[in-house]
Structure formats: C-alpha cells, structure tokens
Amino acid sequence: MPSVPTPPATLSSHLRRLGLLRVADDLNDLLARAAKDRWTPVALLEALATTELEDRARRSLERRFKCARLGRFKPMADFEWTWPKAIDRPLVERVLSLDFLGHTENLVLVGA
Predict the structure, then answer these.
(1) Alpha-carbon distance 92 to 74, whole Å?
(2) pLDDT (tens digit, 0 to 9) for every residue of the chain, 112 residues total?
(3) Full-prediction pTM beyond 0.85?
(4) Fewer Cβ within 10 Å of end Cβ, the chain: N or C?
C-alpha cells in the first residue's frame, strides 16, 4: 500500500477558515482511505462534502434541541405510570399508537 503524504498544516487551517471543521479534523483519515481504496478525485470530494454535511446536520440538531430547552428524552417504556396518579394510561398509549393520523383527527396536548 502506498504511503499517504501528510497534508501540510496550512491545508487544515484553510479548511477551518472556510468553516469546514469536520473535514479539517478528519482530513488525514479521509485521505488515507482514499489512497487505500483508490478513490477518484470526485469520490474523494463527495466523501469530504458528505462528511461535512452530516456533521453540520448533527450540530444543527443539537443546537436546536439546546435552544428549545426540551431536556432529556425518556422512552415511554421507562415512563413511571404510578406518578402522576391522574394520568389516563390507556388514552396515552392510544395516542402513542398514532392511530388518529389515519383517521385525520387532531390531537391537542395541554399542560403546564
């Protein structure tokens, strides 16, 4: 396997200045994979773009969750049905089945 020359530090810094943070971090790994698998230049550029787009989507989702202040999500399987005592479990489970969508019915949630 041919050795992959290490890109100059300026390339990584240029990528960072362009806002391509994930590509700058993963550059050596991506270039090594490209050399090992003999990617075409187009395939390498596609991998770079895909890596950056996926990271931006992940960071955007994390940022929106943080701004929404939703807190941690808890799966319904872990929900404590003994508290609060006034909760209508069959109704909640029926809503979670999403059957109302097929009947084109609305769902209104009211809470503090």
Answers:
(1) 15
(2) 556 666 677 899 999 999 999 999 999 999 999 999 999 999 999 999 999 999 999 999 999 989 998 877 788 888 888 877 778 888 888 888 998 899 888 888 887 6
(3) no
(4) C
Distance CA 31, CA 47 (A): 10
At position 94, the amino acid (one-letter code) is R
Longest dimension (CA), the chain: 68
For the chain, counts of helices (H) and of strands (E): 5, 0
Sorted by where each begins, the domain ranges of the chain are: 9-68
CA distance 102 to 60: 31
Tokens of 108: 């209104």
CA distance 86 to 83: 8
